[in-house]
Amino acid sequence: MIFLSLPILSAEKSSSGPGAGSSASSNSSSPSNTRVFIYGIYAFHSGPSATSLAGQKEIGGAISVEEKTSLIRFFASAECTVIASTPALLGAATSSSVMSSVSLRAHGGLKIFPFSSTKNPFDPFISGSASYSRGGLRVTPPTEEVPYFSRPNLFGYEVSLGLDMKGSSGKLLIRPRLSYAFETGAIGSLKPFTLTKMQASLGIGF
Amino acid sequence: MQLCAERSSISYFLLILAIALLADNRQVEAEETRTLPTIETGAHFFAGPTETSLTGARAYPLIFRAEAIRGKFRPSVAAEFFYSAGTASVGASSTSYTLYGGSFTPAYNIFMFREGYFQPFFGVGGILGWNYLKLTTPPASVEAYTQGYSYGYELSSGVDIRFARAESSALRLRASMTYLVSRIAGQSAFALGGFRFVAGFVY
């Protein structure tokens, strides 16, 4: 799903761009209407201690493709985050287990830029997206509810605010961003298991 | 309770009004709105009920704003990030806390004089944001790590001290009163509003 979403978006944007209606070969030579962003991510988890990863910190990176200029810009992104070995109280356990996780996440959504212009040095935005993540979670020792290794599927949403800071040429952008993310699903027999996190990220766009 | 409900209604109204005005502004203007970038920082002094606010503590915001370049009524949008740490009263207990947050603030600034070295203004805007609160020793029935959306409004006044007569770089001084509530620390309306003083640079 992650790897499919990017080519799909790129194809849609190409067909609506300046070369719409022409052949695939002529599309490839027309100027791109999309921009690529690469993010570094740092997230803080919150929520109920037994059925979430409250207090955990997550780091990762993401790559995102979005439209270049318009009031509303569609985007899709793929994200990979990890939580290194940290103690966690999961389910009804009375002592902490050590947990590690890797998550692959796909997002699709839209951003709203109230002052959409290539000439403005600052472009604040707000965005919303739906997300799907597939994770790998290892818990040592396993608890009654959570096995040693599980692969949860989680669905949720994310809202973000941030701004694009443009250089004089306008080709390179720096994007600080703050997101509120919510995902829910099941881990082992813990259901619902919710991930609520505040995510700070810094991106570079070109 | 009634006062809280009235303020919530005002917050929704101003937030929707600010967004509507921005949308309207984009429809009226055939060409793209040119904006000036502004960076502001300063101190936010929390105020509110003792048991459901961070009253007495301070936050330090960093505000990035894009504001229409000219006109008497200038729409603006800000992306704000802030940090605060100190001692909070939650319910009957007191505990140290760390708060991170951000907000998206569509606003309108009204400039009486469009030329001159001193350009005072009055601003009104809505606030939509989210916050993450960590309590070191939370009281019973309150989670240590909570986060929630926040919404409210801001009334501000300030002055641009310009380095030339019009449309030039300026030093901006701004004081504002904010009303902001969030669902954090187990409270349905945790107050994050207060008084703030910020200084910035318009370039």
Q: Looking at the structure, what is the overall shape of chain A?
A: elongated
Along the chain, the helix and strand elements of chain A come as HHEEEEEEEEE
Q: Supply Rg of chain A.
A: 19 Å
CATH class of chain B, anyone?
Mainly Beta
What is the count of DSSP helices of chain A, taking H or I runs of 4+ residues?
A: 2
Question: Measured on Cα atoms, how large is the radius of gyration of chain B?
Answer: 18 Å
Tell me the helix content of chain A: 10-25%
The oligomeric state of the chains shown is heterodimer
Topology pattern of chain B, helix = H, strand = E? HEEEEEEEEEE
| CATH topology grouping of chain B | Porin
Give the strand content of chain B: over 45%
**Cα shape of chain B:** elongated
Regions of chain A with pLDDT < 50 over 5+ consecutive residues?
Answer: 1-28
Strand order of the largest sheet of chain B: 1-3-4-5-6-7-8-10
Helix/strand/pairing class of chain A, anyone? mainly beta
**Total separate domains of chain A:** 1
Corresponding CATH architecture of chain A = Beta Barrel
Beta percentage of chain A is over 45%
CATH class membership of chain A: Mainly Beta
Q: Could you say what the CATH architecture of chain B is?
A: Beta Barrel
Topology:
The complex is a heterodimer of chains A (about 210) and B (about 200).
Chain A: H1 2-16, H2 24-29, E1 34-46, E2 57-67, E3 72-88, E4 97-112, E5 122-140, E6 149-150, E7 153-166, E8 173-187, E9 190-205
Chain B: H1 2-28, E1 35-46, E2 52-53, E3 58-68, E4 73-90, E5 93-111, E6 118-135, E7 145-162, E8 170-182, E9 190-191, E10 194-202
Antiparallel strand pairs in B: 1-3, 1-10, 2-4, 3-4, 4-5, 5-6, 6-7, 7-8, 8-9, 8-10
Question: What does this 3D model show about the protein?
Answer:
The complex is a heterodimer of chains A (206) and B (203). By secondary structure, chain A is mainly β. Chain A contains 2 helices and 9 strands; from the N terminus they run ααβββββββββ. An 8-stranded antiparallel barrel of chain A has the order 1-2-3-4-5-7-8-9. Chain A is elongated, with a radius of gyration of 19 Å. With 203 residues, chain B is mainly β. In chain B, 13% of the residues lie in helices and 60% in strands. Chain B is built from 1 helix and 10 strands; from the N terminus they run αββββββββββ. The radius of gyration of chain B is 18 Å and the shape is elongated. The N and C termini of chain B lie far apart (43 Å). The model of chain B has no long low-confidence stretch (mean pLDDT 85). The chains are: A mainly beta (206), B mainly beta (203). At the A-B interface, β1, β5, β7, β8 and β9 of A face β1, β3, β4, β5 and β6 of B.
